[in-house]
Amino acid sequence: MSGERVALRLLTGPTYEIVRRADGAVIGEVECRADDPAAGWLAVGPIAVAAGQRGWGYGSEAVRLLEAEAKAARFRADIDAGNGLALYFWLRLGYRPARPGEVPGGVSRGIITMVRVGRSS
């Protein structure tokens, strides 16, 4: 999968490397799981971008690539309730906190589940 400035390369299982297209450097990793927590969902797991590469939009581009390739109508990301930067990151991508009962299986204490409904639903 490739976007304007980054590409995703499957590493193992649900983990993709984030590769900068300009020079082929691996600058991070992102996880995703299809049909989690239920059919039609894509759960985006931890995103890790190397120090010195953060703040340039690479993580956002990686999420958009995952969403574009996914056969999902709904997207979710779980964040620690005390992580304001993560909250801001997901809000900027158009995600919002899940409503009570919106996500199958519920939400863990101390976690905010961020959701976005895809354009096709």
Description:
This protein has two helices and seven strands, in the order E-E-E-E-H-E-H-E-E. By secondary structure, it is of the alpha+beta class. The chain has one domain (6-117): Aminopeptidase (3-Layer(aba) Sandwich), CATH 3.40.630. A seven-stranded mixed sheet has the order 1-2-3-4-5-7-6, with helices on one face. Strand 2 and strand 3 form a beta hairpin. The relative contact order is 0.17.
Quickly list its features.
7-stranded mixed sheet, globular, 7 strands, single chain, 39% strand, 2 helices, alpha+beta, 121 residues, Aminopeptidase
Set out the fold topology.
Elements: E1 6-12, E2 15-20, E3 26-34, E4 41-49, H1 58-69, E5 74-80, H2 84-92, E6 96-97, E7 111-117
Parallel strand pairs: 4-5
Antiparallel strand pairs: 1-2, 2-3, 3-4, 5-7, 6-7
CATH class descriptor name: Alpha Beta
| Neighbour order of strands in the largest sheet | 1-2-3-4-5-7-6
How would you describe the oligomerization state of the chains in this entry? single chain
Q: Tell me what the CATH architecture is.
A: 3-Layer(aba) Sandwich
Indicate how many domains the architecture comprises. Answer: 1
- Helix-strand pattern: EEEEHEHEE
Mean pLDDT: 92
**Largest sheet, if any?**
7 strands, mixed
Helix content: 10-25%
